[in-house]
Amino acid sequence: MTASATKSPATAAAKARSAGPDRSAGRRRSSTIIVTALLVLVALYFLIPVYWVFVASTKSTSDLFSTNGFWFAPTFSLWENIGRVVSYDNGIFGRWFLNSAIYAGVGALLATYFAAAGGYALAKYEFKGRNLVFGTILGGVLVPGTATALPLFLLFSQMGLANTYWSVLLPSLVSPFGLFLCRIYAQATVDTSLIEAARIDGAGELRIFHTIGLKVLTPALVTVFLFQLVGIWNNYFLPLVMLSDSELYPITLGLNNWLSQVDRLPEFYELTTGGVLLSIIPLSIAMIVLQRFWRGGLTEGAVK
């Protein structure tokens, strides 16, 4: 009785120690399963609409409403639909595509550069009113673009810039969120010792910014560029307010113009679905190409 009583606590402790790692591993496996399931649901949420657009663009108008929306029709009409999209109205879709490329490409590139310059200056230079400037810019993040579209239209009308490329391009050059992100990232990653060393070597402030600041800020710049690119490419309300000439329309406004005519001409369903499929290709390519730059730690240990 005494021996068994003596052994039982030690045995229980040994069993508890052996069961502890098993329970921890079980909890980790459960957490992994839950996180994976949530990621799968999020991925499906974003990928299912893309899949539907691809399937719909392979159908004729009659097949689009007579077959299952998530499965292909017996007749594969993708290439015919794309041919109609690019040839309709003397290739107006190509003009819309080029306009969107100009608005989004030039706007995102310049907005990213300006955001990087402003964020770097706010982070690394001490001057009076710096926090006030940053707070004002931060307040700009809270203002929706739809709230400023009408005042911008009135302003550009007085300047004679309405219904021109500039009326859409100039507002796209300002990115309050991009400047906020670049300021926070520059403050955390651009080491003051690197800047001081470059100044001792005789480098000017602009050269330091372009050779050190932009390199360190690369992950933030890619993030700002992608956000701005997608935002400008998908922008609808500002071009709707600013533009009246269909030759200046971006893809979003042009496709909506086609969609508004489907009640009168049902074949515009084919043009709209095919145009939507073509419109998402540039954004997908940009994401795939730029994601390799989307990583941090580019200058880890540079000071040492």
List keywords for this structure.
14 helices; disordered N terminus; globular; 304 residues; mainly alpha
Could you walk me through the main structural features you see in this protein, from its secondary elements to its overall organization?
It is a single chain. The chain is mainly alpha-helical and 304 residues long. Helices cover 75% and strands 0% of the residues. The protein has 14 helices and no strands. The protein has helices spanning 2-57, 61-66, 78-87, 92-124, 130-141, 145-159, 165-172, 176-189, 192-200, 205-216, 218-233, 237-242, 251-259, 268-290. It is globular. The protein starts with a helix and ends in a 14-residue tail after the last helix.
Main sheet: strands, sense, barrel: none
Based on helices, strands and strand pairing, what is the structural class? Answer: mainly alpha
Report how far apart the termini are: 67 Å
Oligomeric state of the chains in view: single chain
- The overall pLDDT average reads 85
Give the overall shape: globular
Instruction: Show unreliable segments.
Output: 1-7, 296-304
β-strand number:
0
% residues in beta strands:
under 5%
Radius of gyration: 28 Å
